[in-house]
Amino acid sequence: MKSAKNILQPEHRALKTAVLVLDECNTLSFASAVDPMRAANRLADRPAFDWDYVTATPEPAMLTSALQVPGIPLARLDHCDLMIVIAGFNLVRHATPSLLAGLRRIANTGATMAGIDGGPWLLAEAGLLDGHAATTHWEDLETFATRFPEVDVRPDRYTVSGNRLTSGGAIPAVEMMLHIIAARHGAGFAARVSGLFLYEGAPEPGKPQSRTGAPHRHSALTARANAIMQAALDDPLPLAEIAKALGTSPRTLQQQFRLRLNTTPQDHYLQLRLAEARRLVTDTDMPLMDVAQATGFTSQSSFARAFRTAHGQSARDLRQNRTQPTHH
Fold it and tell me: Which of 175, 208, 241 is the last residue of a domain?
């Protein structure tokens, strides 16, 4: 195995990059890897990235949007400085012996290996994340940690661990790519790339992933309350206990949630639990009684009533009617 080259240092030479695109990855994850490189090349006085698309087989990769991406078959790729693995659904089916062997072969050349969305799962299956800090999408973190005990699994938005980079999803992947650009071309240049997307600056990579999509509306207080709630969906905490943990009063917490999110802490907590319940109903085969317990409902009847009110149909009907889910 060749010694790894540190790509995260000042360098004007174009970074030779292989973007490995798997069937059933989502388009936003794909764009999150590619567009920052395109934007960097546009702004630089010389190419910052030189990339090729790579596919698992000689056939083009088919994204969830039906977009096809033709590329060099992995078996024919000799080397690169950075390989970015982008994956989505059906990771077990994609983790073929030939794909995993191909990943190990490229890693053994000293390439930096990065994974986006389901990509970290495939890197871990290949044994390439053992001993490294890594993350994946929040829906899969617990399963990921159980399956790969040699990996230091973090709930972070993205991680950098030696020559291994992993991102929990599409938007943190933009942040991860900006991190690479900043390391190679300076923070000022990365800020200009960020500005092309009207992106106003990334949180710290170690900031935990959020299950809700409105991070900019939170205050510091409601964001911390939200994190406490997310960590205790199966055994909901009383409002007074959450307020005490935050060093504030229930009244102040109520006011902040009303001001920032136009809701109450109790209803926000309930919506978090019901969103998780919907995910478990549509994305797993967990018995509905266990779904109720996992989301903090002490009786099946109260769960059924709340679920129907929130989602317009019963959990049983939703599971019977489910189709291939849209990816994260």
Answer: 208
Which tokens is 67 given?
């977009």
Q: What is the CATH number of the domain that holds 303?
A: 1.10.10.60
- Average pLDDT score over the chain: 88
Tokens of 218: 């939170």
Residue 135 CA to residue 303 CA, distance in Å, equals 31
Q: For residue 200, give every residue at least 6 positions away whose Cβ sits within 8 Å of its Cβ, in sequence order, or none.
A: 194
Give 24-68 pLDDT, tens digit per residue. 999 999 999 999 999 999 888 679 999 999 999 999 999 989 999
Query: Taking the chain, what is the end-to-end CA distance rounded to the nearest angstrom?
Result: 35
pLDDT digits (tens, 9 = 90+) for 160-184: 999 999 998 888 999 999 999 989 9
Instruction: Tell me the CA distances in angstroms from 42 to 47, 184, 261, one per residue in order.
Output: 8, 16, 39
Residue 101 lies in a domain: yes
Alpha-carbon gap, residue 222 to 252, rounded angstroms: 10
Strand partners for 166: 115, 159
pTM above 0.85, yes or no: no
Q: What is the DSSP string of 124-138?
A: HHTTTTTTSEE---G
203, 255: one domain:
no
Q: What is the pLDDT of residue 326?
A: 39
81's tokens: 């400085």
Alpha-carbon separation of residue 272 from 14, 23, 279, 308 (angstroms): 44, 31, 11, 15
Among 27, 84, 16, 23, smallest CA distance to 56 is for 23
- CB within 8 A of 274, min separation 6: which ones? 295, 306, 307, 310, 311
Are 39 and 148 in a shared domain? yes
> How is residue 76 written in tokens?
């024919």
- Total number of domains in the chain: 2
Cα–Cα distances (Å) from 116 to 29, 31, 37, 81, 130, in that order, read 7, 11, 15, 17, 17
Residue 39 lies in a domain: yes
